[in-house]
What does this fold into?
Amino acid sequence: MSVVERQRWDVVVVGAGGAGLRAAIEARERGARTAVICKSLFGKAHTVMAEGGIAAAMGNVNSGDNWQVHFRDTMRGGKFLNQWRMAELHAREAPDRVWELETWGALFDRTADGRISQRNFGGHEYPRLAHVGDRTGLELIRTLQQKIVQLQQEDFKETGDYESRLKVFQECTVTRVLKDEAGERVSGAFCYERESGRFFVLEAPAVVLSTGGIGKSFKVTSNSWEYTGDGHALALLAGAPLLNMEFVQFHPTGMVWPPSVKGILVTESVRGDGGVLRNSEGKRFMFDYVPDVFKEKYAQSEEEGDRWYEDPDHNRRPPELLPRDEVARAINSEVKAGRGSPHGGVFLDVSTRMPADVIRRRLPSMYHQFKELADVDITAEAMEVGPTCHYVMGGIAVDSDTAAARGVPGLYAAGEVAGGMHGSNRLGGNSLSDLLVFGRRAGLHAAEYAAGFDGDRPGVTDLQIDAAAAEALRPFSAEGQEEGTVPENPYTLHQELQQAMNDLVGIIRREGEMEQALRKLADLRLRARRAGVEGHRQFNPGWHLALDLRNMLLVSECIARAALERTESRGGHTREDRPAMDREWRRVNLLCQLRDPTGGLAATDPVRGQIDLVRETTEPVRPDLLALFEKEELVKYLAEEELFE
Ligand code: FAD
It folds into this structure.
């Protein structure tokens, strides 16, 4: 039996990005003793990379904006597969969350009359993104961090201990969400320190997962090293289903050159601020790619598109500002048709659209990114850009109001790891607002749930701890596990996984290729059991990767299975063999669950567990929300019987 330190908390928040920190603040303010745990340094979560802004219908730049318009845009962007109640709460509450950030010290860019400035972004009818240059995520995290420090100072005054009610465990990884002996309710989290390899357990009746996305399963991605789908896999392993995992967003504009930086994001603000896309023939090709559902909202000529920047009330927006899935597919088609740039992308140009000093002021990170990484001066020449895996719309199935994960009492999820909010495609800027709205809700409900226990909290047994420790240590004894087998190198397995997902379940999908991907993933899952590492538990990146592989493989299989099942194209899921959106599929959610070979949920052995796919009918949209749309528009999205109803 291993001796592992145990600590008692009320709420454990896994992840210190925007969602996790907002959840932790709320839980602590509601009186719950709260622990936050994160893989990276405190303040370094992926959210700091967010560039463009936070979407919130404050109406500061165009008074026509309000929550109803934001709701409409979000549903259109998600092609009506959004969990509509989440989209409603998000649109209603986002402005309050932004103003709240300001009262906590966030310094947003201002309009000429001193209000929080808002910028245009794809799919948003009005300028809606509150921003801080192109470093909005950094300011968001800085502000939330500052708020946490302030709460800790208050606690110090009262208890003499800064960490008595709110503690951050940085550079630590959770490998299992633990449940009581009956396997029903959450009882804590099994964790290890990345530096020392030391195991510890945080016991708590409520765990909030806010671990972000899955991008590191793909070869070309804008995501940081932390995005290995941990929270998704932790939920699966704990018995919670994942929702609509086929929807992965490929951002249209990642860097394509040089190879070492391929995939790094070029923010949508470049297009929001007037940047245009051209092919190798110099043509602004997006005018050829406006789909029927959006035809009435987008300019038909370059002149009209250009006029919109000055006079948005009397002109339609340029098609460069279509939702991301549309732009990514268009770029893909141009490159495939032989009209790409020298390094396999297309050209994105701001140099002919704005004076150099304005570019440097409005897009400082982009200016430096291209200068330093590609030796391109974006004030004088065009950038080369192409699609990059950016965001996962699929995620843990949650209750819209409480953020409670389905089927596992005590488990909550918020931020990119949670599914439903964005439907089949997320609009830019809607993630940062999602983090704040649902981070707060998750913290609130987790704290309330934890407060419901007196002395009868779900317990963690030594047996469970031993099992979690043995699983985590497996890579050190991979050779001895199965006689005669050679350990597999985790880096090789990871590369093969990334290549397979990129090539076979990427931006354009085909039935045969997805079947091939599933065979490859099954093989990788078996080989990952033999993933072996050398050396010690002290900071050992190979070991960390070997543990992350379990998560990436589970999540990738969910993506591939759901993508194969959904025989239509919608948002972030494009099938060459089924190119049209099918209204009947709007009624279908696909849920992935992990079953052990005996049929029970929450397989303890991830290698032998099977991913099951279950179809579920989506909840009908509330009539007053449907009334926000014209009937003619609804006809494009809703199934026949829904229209009838
Ligand atoms: P994160 O911020 O990623 O935090 C995840 C946390 O979980 C981290 O602290 C990590 O260490 C921790 N973690 C993960 N696994 C474990 C584990 N096993 N154990 C312990 N801790 C763990 N969205 C917008 O709305 N506007 C933008 O302008 C915008 N720009 C973007 C620019 C870039 C380059 C990228 C890549 C994304 C951008 N997005 C933007 C998307 C947005 O940044 C993310 O969706 C969002 O930040 C996710 O936040 P989160 O709180 O869910 O997760």
In short: The chain has a mean pLDDT of 93. The first helix runs from residue 18 to 29. The longest strand covers residues 383-392. The two ends are 60 Å apart (CA to CA).
